[in-house]
Specification:
The protein is mostly helical and 91 residues long. Helix content is 71%, strand content 9%. The protein is flat, with a radius of gyration of 19 Å.
Length: 91
């Protein structure tokens, strides 16, 4: 449990789930702001949308070593095709 000092100066106990939720919320806001900036500044917003929609590739690749998820042949082919699509779109 982590102690957090609020504006009142009192210490309040915050459990680890709340801390993780707060950190995830901050990163979610930062990701949304980055996405808005990317779409507004890109020469073709479709590129940004295509790249953002491939977040499944990142989740798949991270979940294998982190959680021990088994990567099936269909998933591996999907990852390869998604990366190939990004390469083709950005050329």
């Amino acid at each position: 449990m982590a102690a957090v000092v609020l504006f009142t100066g009192r210490e309040v106990q915050v459990n680890s789930v709340a801390m993780v939720a707060a950190v995830l919320g901050i990163f979610s806001v930062l990701g949304t702001l980055a996405a808005i900036y990317a779409v507004t500044s890109a020469p073709n917003p479709g590129y940004v949308a295509a790249i953002f929609s491939t977040n499944v590739v990142l989740v798949t690749l991270v979940s294998v070593p982190l959680f021990g998820t088994r990567l099936s042949a269909e998933n591996a082919v999907g990852v390869v095709l998604a990366v190939a699509a990004i390469v083709l779109i950005t050329r």
